[in-house]
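Notebook, p. 212. Picked up where the previous page left off. The plan for this session was modest: take the two constructs that came back from the sequencing core last week, fold each one, and keep the raw output in the notebook itself so nobody has to go hunting through shared drives later. Recording the first one now, exactly as returned: residue sequence, then the structure token string.
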Amino acid sequence: MTVELDTGWNLRSVMASRGIFQTSKLKPLLEERGIDLSREQVYRLVTQPPQRVRLDVLAALCDALECSLDDLVTITRREASTPVAVGEVTSRLVV
């Protein structure tokens, strides 16, 4: 069996739990922590799960929102079954 990892990006819900409902409110919080992103970059960071995030951006988000990495990112592990060919025996019953 192979293991598959599913990730969740929870920035929008963390922001909402802190009373921040607009992406434009996040930009100055990041700038205060030395992170200079454009409006578009901040919008994408909030609305789309990123493929890559710099550690300094993650640290600034955690500090600004007073949260941990576990709050921002969820990782779910699941075992994926290996495809079985037609006619292949997967287990044997021993009596």
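Okay, moving on. Second construct, recorded in the same format:
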Amino acid sequence: LVVPVVRDADRKSFAQIEQDIIDYAGRAREGKIQLEDLQGGGFTISNGGVYGSLLSTPILNPPQSGILGMHTIQERPVAVNGEVVVRPM
């Protein structure tokens, strides 16, 4: 499990965070990720939805406090007040 840490995310714009992620991805492809790039995180966001994932069990990267697994939103049948209706899930 390789999870680069976006440092000071609370003080960055979405564009700055996106640029950090792009930079990490480039370094990962080139095999240039350093150990310090992977240490010191507090929370992970995992987006399997970009690959069409509907369900998974995200793996917590210790000592982080939590992980949020995001997945594809797809219309599915659900029960609402005794009726079957289609809702995005």
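Notes on construct two before I forget. Residues 14-29 form the longest helix (16 residues).
Flagging for discussion at group meeting.
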